[in-house]
Write a structure and sequence with these properties.
By secondary structure, the protein is α/β, with parallel strands linked by helices. The protein has three domains: 8-256, Rossmann fold, CATH 3.40.50.620; 261-338 and 464-537, Glutamyl-tRNA Synthetase, domain 2; 346-454, Ribosomal Protein L25, Chain P. It has 13 helices and 27 strands. The strands form seven sheets. It has a seven-stranded mixed β-sheet with strand order 12-25-26-27-23-24-13. Strands 21-18-19-20-14-17-22 form a seven-stranded mixed β-sheet, with no helix packed on it. Strands 4-5-6-7 form a four-stranded antiparallel β-sheet. Helix 2 packs across helix 11 (301-311), helix 7 crosses helix 8 (235-244) and helix 11 packs across helix 12 (322-336). The longest helix is centred in the N-terminal third of the chain and has 16 residues, at 40-55. The protein is elongated. It starts with 7 loop residues before the first helix and ends in a 5-residue tail after the last strand. The structure holds adenosine-5'-triphosphate (ATP) and magnesium ion. Adenosine-5'-triphosphate (ATP) binds next to helix 2 and strand 8.
Length: 542
């Protein structure tokens, strides 16, 4: 896929620009509700909103849709800012729906004065049951014909805090028989005596999303209000509000499909449950689809941007394969991550004819000289992977087995002479011969082993803990009802591994562990060994 790909949204923007329809240029917004951490679905929206503004010389607001004081918190506000910045985008300004609460309130009062809104005193349950269904019209509220004076008085007293939660709401007077349920006298204000994370106790009535969103878009002069497909049915209401208030700008709402990703859930409600019920270690658990989790797993922001570009923007809902994200991560790290040797499941090898010790050397990346070289301590005792030895090797085996040879990466060729087992018959040590004239780069031995394995010096090697994270769910499409049953309780394996010492002082966070995959240094715990999280395996297939 190339950079020239234009989707229907970019085509629309280009048309608008060509027709000089945008008096203030391209202005977009990313409008999260601060009620959870951002996930990779949000990244699609962020890359789209910030991306088009960047491409067409425009600007993007980061706007917090903070109309629901009960579920929102400053922790989420901060995490959202951190994650958008980490993804690589700069906002023109941070705004909040709550910045406009007074204006939104005034628009509602004006609608009441115009006879286009009223105070309804049905309880929430009655409002629901009189709303009708997809096949049947709703019923008019008995409060629909209150006088303007009575409505204004009640609305002002709602604001003043005279009534308890749920006793009254403000509703638009549109059409209870509309085929679109969103148009059946939608609620625009409710009473909620709750402390708001920004406005404190200044308000006890809060505007609803559908009323608020278009007004904020108009105030900020958003040129294209991009949202996900489930809002298509709300567009008539978005337009109705802007057509019926005294505001001289009316942004177009344009919908695109949500991102769905296999083997995970994306709804914040479900992610909350994973965190609250401690099924993961937190919002930034490396198995979470949150940006904080992906970052902690070692996924570079550039790989997420590439992923979002590849999936593109359409109106078709679809679920993307996890393999595509993994592919983008590997592609990103392949050339840039230094490659170190880490033995995940150590098996001791003793080189019977080697004496003393020496320092070998090898490049950090065989194809990328710019990453430099490192020293590799070597002695008569090293570790190799248990998997790199087989007593009875299968056909085409290229690693160690009794009597067979293998090359140690950037070191010598060795031959397995003797196998030492414990009482249970487990292999605990290999005794090998090394060939002094087979040193990498100066090999005159004429020996031709079939394979090369990684290793770490047993004395200089550093104990590290490696967290091998698998997918959190066992099935590609966990359902929102039964997703807790679909969790793979074995999706985390902690390994006590041994790493080559030069990795410890390297400033890089992300490494390829040779022949294993990509791994990322985790936030160091005060005591205990350094921790590395597995980002992705080297090849497809879990
Ligand atoms: P949830 O339903 O999980 O709570 P949301 O859509 O309510 O998510 P918001 O914080 O309101 O979350 O979302 C902010 C923006 O991100 C919205 O414009 C929304 O359309 C967009 N967005 C959320 N999830 C996705 C997704 N999976 N794919 C694309 N865009 C998304
Ligand atoms: Mg929402």
């Amino acid at each position: 896929m190339d950079n020239e790909t234009t989707d229907f949204i970019r085509q629309r923007i280009e048309t608008d620009l060509a027709e000089n329809a945008l008096t203030q240029g391209v202005i977009t917004r990313f409008p999260p509700e601060p009620n959870g951490f951002l996930h990779i679905g949000h990244a699609k929206s962020i890359c789209l909103n910030f991306g088009v503004a960047q491409e067409y010389g425009g600007e993007t607001f980061l706007r917090f849709d903070d109309t629901n004081p009960v579920k929102e918190s400053n922790e989420f506000v901060e995490s959202i800012q951190r994650d958008v910045a980490w993804l690589g985008f700069q906002w023109k300004a941070i705004t909040h729906a709550s910045d406009y609460f007074e204006q939104i309130y005034q628009f509602a009062e004006a609608l009441i004065r115009d006879g286009k809104a009223y105070i309804c005193s049905l309880n929430p349950e009655q409002i629901r049951t009189t709303r009708g269904t997809l096949t049947e019209p709703g019923e008019n509220s008995p409060y629909r014909d209150r006088t303007v004076e009575e409505n204004l008085d009640l609305f002002q007293r709602m604001r003043a805090g005279e009534f308890p939660d749920g006793s009254h709401v403000a509703r638009l007077k549109i059409d209870m028989a509309s085929p679109n349920l969103n148009m059946r006298d939608p609620v625009i204000y409710r009473i909620r005596h709750a402390t708001h994370q920004r406005t404190g106790d200044a308000w006890c009535i809060y505007p609803m999303y559908d009323f608020t969103h278009g007004i904020c878009d108009a105030i900020e002069h958003i040129s294209h209000s991009l949202c996900t497909l489930e809002f298509a049915d709300h567009r008539p209401l978005y337009d109705w509000v802007l057509d019926n208030i005294a505001i001289n700008y009316h942004p177009p709402q344009i919908e695109f499909s949500r991102l769905g990703l296999e083997y995970t859930v994306m709804s914040k409600r479900l992610l909350h449950r994973l965190v609250d019920e401690q099924l993961v270690s937190g919002w930034d658990d490396p198995r979470m689809p949150t940006l904080a989790g992906l970052r902690r797993r070692g996924v570079p922001a550039s790989a997420i941007r590439e992923f979002c570009q590849r999936i593109g923007v359409t109106k078709q809902d679809n679920v993307i394969e996890m393999n595509l994200l993994d592919f983008c991560i590997r592609q990103d790290l392949e050339a840039s991550a230094p490659r170190g040797m880490v033995v995940l499941n150590p098996l001791k090898v003793v080189l019977s004819n080697y004496e003393g010790s020496e320092t070998l050397d090898g490049p950090w990346h065989a194809q990328n000289d710019t990453l430099g070289r490192r020293e590799l301590p070597f002695s008569a005792e090293i570790f190799i992977e248990q998997d790199d030895y087989a007593v009875e090797p299968p056909a085409k085996w290229k690693r160690l087995s009794p009597g067979q040879m293998v090359r140690l990466r950037y070191a010598y060729i060795i031959r397995c002479d003797e196998v030492i087992e414990d009482e249970q018959g487990r292999v605990v040590q290999l005794n090998c011969t090394y060939f002094a004239d087979s040193k990498s780069g100066q090999d005159t031995s004429g020996l031709k082993p079939k394979g090369v394995v990684h290793w770490v010096d047993a004395h200089a090697g550093v104990p590290v803990r490696v967290m091998d994270y698998g997918r959190l769910f066992k099935v590609p499409n966990p359902s929102s009802q039964t997703f807790l049953d679909d969790i793979d309780t074995e999706s985390l394996t902690a390994l006590e591994a041994v790493a080559e010492p030069a990795m410890m002082n390297h400033e890089a966070q992300r490494f390829q562990f040779e022949r294993q995959g990509y791994f990322c240094k985790d936030v160091a715990s005060a005591d205990g060994p350094p921790v590395f999280n597995k980002t992705v395996s080297l090849r497809e297939g879990f």
